[in-house]
Amino acid sequence: xxxxxxxxxxxxxxxxxxxxxxxxxxxxPRASQVDVAEWMDVPRLLGAALAGxxxxxxxxxxxxxxxxxxxxxxxxxxxxxxxxxxxxxxxQSAVVGGASNISAGIVPNSLxxxxxxxxxxxxxxxxxxxxxYNSFDTAHASGTGSLRNRCRYxxxxxxxxxxxxxxxxxxxxxxxxxxxxxLMGDPALTYLDAGTAxxxxxxxxxxxxAQWNSLPKLSDGCxxxxxxxxxxxVCVTLLSVPKNGAALTQELxxxxxxxxxxxxxxRLYATSSGNxxxxxxxxxxxxxxxxxxxxxxxGTFYDPFPLKQMLGHAFLVPNSGDMPTVIAPDAGxxxxxxxxxxxxxxxxxxxxxxxxxxWQQGVELKSxxxxxxxxxxxxxxxxxxxxxx
Length: 389
Prior knowledge:
The protein is mainly β. Helices cover 5% and strands 40% of the residues. The strands form 7 sheets. Strands 3-10-9-6-5 form a 5-stranded antiparallel β-sheet, with no helix packed on it.
C-alpha cells in the first residue's frame, strides 16, 4: 500500500501509524481455497512490546524480494520430518521502534511467514510468549523463487517462543503416522498448565495421504504451485514448554476430519478440566457452512448451530471459563453465540448477538490494491451484573 492509497481510504493523519504497524505493502485478497503461494515478497514476523506495557502484538512484514533467502535453504525431498529440529537465536535488529524479528533465521528452513496466533504464558513474575504462524517449508519443496513446488511432508506450521531472553523456533512436523501428508497452516494456540511445563496446543489445517495421492505430480513427486490444494483434516500438536526456560519438546499430534468436507480456519480453547476444543468451519460440499467443534481430538464432533448456514471462521471466545463459547456469522450478516455445558455435554440454544453486517467484503482501492478483511474478535468479561461479551 502506498501513501496515496491510504489517503484515499482513511486520510493522511493516520498514515504514520499505519506505516509503522503494517508497513508499505498490499494485503492479498482472500482465496476460496487454502494456498498462500501468491505472496510474492517474503513476509517476516514482528513481535512488538509497546512502551513497556503488558501488551504483545504480532504482524507480518516483508522485504522487497526473496534475495535474503540463502541458497543453502533451497531444496526438495520427501524425507519424513524431524520433530526435534530446532534453531535458537537471540531476537535482534529491530525493524521499527519496539519491534524485533522473531522468525527469520529462527524457525528452520523458512522462505516466508504470515498469519499469526499468539499467547502469553505467565509463571509468577515471568511471562513467556509463544507465536504460531504460516511458514513456507523449503526443506520439503523444490524449485526456486517465491513460487515453489510443495513436496510430501511440507509443513506450513512454524512456532517461535521466548525463553531466557532468546527466541527459539521450531517447525511442527507433519504427523505422517496419522495418515497426513501436509500441514497447511491457518494456526491457533491454547494451553494448559502442566506443573513444571505448559502444554501448548497448536492447530493447523492439513491434507490426508489419500487427498495428496490424488493430486497430479511433477517428475520429482512434488506438486506445482498452480495446483489447487484443499485441506480435509485439522491437526493439533502438543508442545511441552518447560517453565525453567529449556527448549520445548514436540509431542504427538492428533488429526480430525469431517468426512468429505473442506475445513477452513482453526480455533482452540482449553478448560480447567483439561478438555481441549477445536473449532473449524466447513467451506465446501458436502457440508458447506457448518461449524464443527471437536472435543479432545476424537472423531466425534458437535454442531453448535444446527440448521444454520454459517459464513466464516468460528471463534472460540477466550476466558469463557468451563463453558466453551463459540461465535460465528451466518450468510445473512448475523453473529450467533452458543455455549457448551461440559457437565451435560449440551450446547445452549443459539443466540443472535449482532446483526446487519456486510461480512467478508474486501475493499479495493483505486490503484487496484485489495485490503483483506481481518475477521472479528471477542473476549468473555465478567461483570457485577453478569458475564458479557
